[in-house]
């Protein structure tokens, strides 16, 4: 089976979530779960202060674009390209170009899966970076992003810090 890659699809502005829902419904109806693996509208958390009150909301990172992790073939290309609200794939002409590893990293997307020998509650030590040699208990793990959250003492307070799986090891 061919390898799945991330592709970017251009949509009408404001139709990103509608396009995502339409593609997911088509995947379900046509049984394409093995070929179109994930549809994502990249969002970021934004804190706004209005009238002295903090308000946290979700904002689209790239308005007018939807990201799709899929195996590119005639069927999947046709399904995505002919979804209502989609204007086309991002790439030269009509040829879709997959995102590179470097383009995916800032978005928190990784194609490679890192297997780790620790779980939530285990003690780990940080091997590199600003928190080198810090020991802490794993509070939360995000396998999609490849990070673990530990509490470290900062200015006399417990503070959660997110560390990459590649920078830690389990304390024996």
Give a topology summary:
Layout (H helix, E strand, L loop, with lengths): L4 E7 L4 H15 L5 E5 L2 E8 L2 E8 L4 E6 L3 H8 L4 E4 L11 H4 L18 E4 L8 E8 L4 E8 L2 E8 L3 E3 L2
> What integer is the average pLDDT?
84
Count of separate DSSP helical elements: 3
CATH first level of the largest domain: Alpha Beta
Per CATH, what is the topology of the largest domain? Alpha-Beta Plaits
Instruction: Identify the CATH homologous superfamily of the largest domain.
Output: NusG, N-terminal domain
Q: How helix-rich are the residues, as a percent range?
A: 10-25%
Biggest β-sheet, characterized? 5 strands, antiparallel
Distance between the termini: 40 Å
Structural class: alpha+beta
Structure commentary:
With 172 residues, the protein is an alpha+beta fold. The chain has two domains: 5-107, NusG, N-terminal domain (Alpha-Beta Plaits, 2-Layer Sandwich); 123-170, Roll (SH3 type barrels), CATH 2.30.30. It has three helices and eleven strands, in the order E-H-E-E-E-E-H-E-H-E-E-E-E-E. The protein has helices at 16-30, 74-81, 101-104; strands spanning 5-11, 36-40, 43-50, 53-60, 65-70, 86-89, 123-126, 135-142, 147-154, 157-164, 168-170. It has a five-stranded antiparallel beta sheet with strand order 10-9-8-7-11, with no helix packed on it. A hairpin with an 8-residue loop joins strand 7 (123-126) and strand 8.
Features:
172 residues; alpha+beta; Alpha-Beta Plaits; SH3 type barrels; 5-stranded antiparallel beta sheet; 4-stranded antiparallel beta sheet; 3 helices; 11 strands; globular
């Amino acid at each position: 089976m061919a390898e799945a890659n991330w592709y970017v699809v251009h949509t009408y502005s404001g139709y990103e979530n509608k396009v995502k829902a339409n593609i997911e419904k088509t995947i379900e109806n046509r049984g394409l779960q093995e070929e179109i693996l994930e549809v994502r509208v990249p969002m970021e958390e934004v804190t706004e202060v209005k009238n002295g009150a903090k308000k946290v909301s979700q904002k689209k990172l790239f308005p007018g674009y939807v990201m799709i992790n899929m195996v590119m073939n005639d069927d999947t290309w046709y399904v995505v390209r002919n979804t209502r609200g989609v204007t086309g794939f991002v790439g030269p002409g009509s040829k879709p170009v997959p995102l590179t590893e470097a383009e995916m990293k800032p978005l928190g997307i990784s194609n490679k899966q890192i297997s780790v020998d620790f779980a939530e509650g285990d003690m780990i030590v940080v091997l590199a970076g600003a928190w080198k040699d810090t020991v802490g208990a794993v509070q939360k793990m995000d396998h999609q992003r490849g990070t673990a959250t530990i509490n470290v003492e900062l200015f006399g307070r417990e503070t959660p810090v997110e560390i990459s799986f590649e920078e830690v090891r389990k304390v024996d």
